[in-house]
Amino acid sequence: MNILDKIVADKRVEVDLRKSLIPVKQLEHSVLFERETISLANKLRLSQTGIIAEHKRRSPSKSLINQTLNVFEVAKGYENAGVCGMSVLTDGKYFGGSLDDLLTARASCNLPLLRKEFIIDEYQLLEAKAFGADVILLIAAILSRDEIKQFSEFAKNLKLDVLLEVHNEEELHKSLMPSLDMLGINNRNLKTFDVSLETSKTLSKLIPNDFVKVSESGISNVASIKDLQFYGFQGFLIGENFMKTDNAGESAKQFIKELEK
């Protein structure tokens, strides 16, 4: 059983528990459920920099990244830095996140918020909407084509943008469908945790231009982004690079300044 299988098995138990505690009707009646969402895909299309900055306390590959930064301040800092969107990890067991982090970020900024989660059930999309997300992540490695279709179409009905993440050509071919907004290439092999930007470069030419191309993981310098822009990427998900500093917002601000030179 690799780490991804373990996470999904735990997630099924967690989601079943959450469903038994908070009924769908309660989610649908939450204050944020009716708010108008902001399209991250549109923002990325219009941006010269395309940074999606992440709030992440820890991960299975890096253990502790930063436990001290306050989500409210991080979100404000990222918005002030001029990022296009913010990714918020909501998995507790493996990443130290929570839905409350999403709620806090929503209260702090007007950025498009991505709920970064292992989605295996429509219920999690209702949670995303109820807790203030604008975008959801679907991971091709843990979903069948039918599930990707089901979840992405359900998300579109909720007016949520959909970022679909792939790691290889096989996942990409099974995933392409009109209900997706963004195609994310994760440069980290989820089985070995090795990172290579060549994954993004190789897969970029297989992605039709209807989708916004996003490169994820392992991006730590401006040169990498300029290189990836040449391959048609408009979005760049950066987490650890900002979160491992004392001031994630300031770190993002300096990075974007450098990128705009």
Order of helices and strands: HHHEEEHEHEHEHEHEHEHEHH
Gyration radius, rounded = 17 Å
- Shape annotation: globular
Overall structural class, as computed from helix and strand content, comes to alpha/beta
The fraction of residues in strands falls at 15-25%
Question: Between the first and last Cα atoms, what is the distance in angstroms?
Answer: 46 Å
Q: Give, in spatial order, the strands making up the sheet with the most strands.
A: 1-4-5-6-7-8-9-10
| Strand element count | 10
Count of DSSP H/I helices: 12
**Sheet of most strands:** 8 strands, parallel, barrel
The helical percent reads: 40-55%
Query: Which residue ranges are poorly predicted, with pLDDT under 50 across at least 5 consecutive positions?
Result: none
Global mean pLDDT? 94
